[in-house]
Amino acid sequence: MYHLTYLEAAVVGLVQGVSELFPVSSLGHNVLIPALIGGSWARDLSVAKPESPYLAFIVGLHVATAIALLIYFWRDWVRVIRGFFTSLRHIVRPPKGTGRWQFRSADERLAWMIILATIPVGVVGLAFEHLFRVIFGKPVYAAVFLVINGLILLAGERYIRHRGLGQAAGPAADQRSGTQAAASASAVTDQDIVVERELAMTAAGHQAAGSAPANGHQAVRAQEVAEAQESDRRLSGMGYGEAMLIGSAQVLALLAGISRSGVTMVGGMFRGLSREDAARFAFLLATPVILAAGVLKIPDLTGPLGSGIRGQVLVASVLSGVGAYVSVRYLVRYFQTRTLTPFAIYCLIVGLGSIIYLKLVK
Fold first, then answer.
1. Residue pLDDT, tens place only, 267-285
2. Nearest CA to 67 among 250, 249, 319, 260?
3. Can you give the pTM of this predicted structure?
């Protein structure tokens, strides 16, 4: 029977939830931490060990992380899912005067961007995920890839500063070229305008009655919703090919040490997105991917492989979900004004320090 203590499960769950969304690689940390601690941790928590359920355990925790993302972005997912089904209706009954299927709102375009951007990592993940993580899931490899992750983050920051891109308030021309900007501008439909007007009226009404703390909180939340809608409109101005390229960057996260959110953000920044919009797109893209990955591993944990550790799985899942929710709340605000540089420096220091320790000291 596989042995996993509640302390080990709690640490792994919390690390998974927090580092999945921070651009520092959750899998890299969950491979490195047991190796650096050593002893029973290194024996119990080995991704590359044959017949070990540890890989299934940490991937299964993705369900809790995805649930936290769904809770935080639930309004966005309601709009995106509604946009998806609305777009399907247009296939059967194209808008009058067009004679063809076309998207009529930012939500419809964003829904299909998320679908298309998820396909590459879904295909590669199903075919090679276990192979990649067993072969490259060794501590030294994880440390090396963590260093590479830090360099990728620095490259993204260097590029965005060179281009003069910063927060999402920058000119639309910096984010989209010629035809893309025109397409985005023409996409402001009556539906979009109505939604924006309702949000603005809601915020104004709450601010007018802002003497009560609850109303003040509602006004802040209404503003966040309005900003989210505006961000989605900017994102929907990308081309579908660009969305697929950004989504394809998630394939690199199959390597322990490479951060899914980090490489996706950098991919978005290289395609002209601001940090804020790139982070938002990365979190939206991550949700279906990590949810699917976790769901696929649940049968392993409910079967013989998970015998004797189901209590530990529950504890780890709760901590993973809480850690992910707190993290995404923090990061959404963080990237409105700050950069990837601190995370890049962290990855370089931890990665290089781990290499030195594992190869020269231990």
1. 999 989 999 999 999 999 9
2. 319
3. 0.82
Burial class, 166, CB count within 10 angstroms (exposed 0-12 / middle 13-18 / buried 19+): middle
The domain spans of the chain are: 6-187+237-361
According to the 3-state scheme, what is the secondary structure of the chain?
CCCCCHHHHHHHHHHHHHHHHCCCCHHHHHHHHHHHHCCHHHHHCCCCCCCCCHHHHHHHCHHHHHHHHHHHCHHHHHHHHHHHHHHHHHHHCCCCCCCCCCCCCHHHHHHHHHHHHHHHHHHHHHHHHHHHHHHCCCHHHHHHHHHHHHHHHHHHHHHHHHHCCCCCCCCHHHHCCHHHHHHHHHCCCHHHHHHHHHHHHHHHHHHHCCCCHHHHHHHHHHHHHHHHHHHHHHHHCCCHHHHHHHHHHHHHHHCCCCCHHHHHHHHHHHCCCCHHHHHHHHHHHHHHHHHHHHHHHHHHHHCHHHCCCHHHHHHHHHHHHHHHHHHHHHHHHHHHHCCCHHHHHHHHHHHHHHHHHHHHHC
Indicate the residue type of 262: G
In this prediction, residue 205 carries a pLDDT of 47
Q: Which tens digits make up the pLDDT trace of 323-355?
A: 999 999 999 999 999 999 999 999 999 999 999
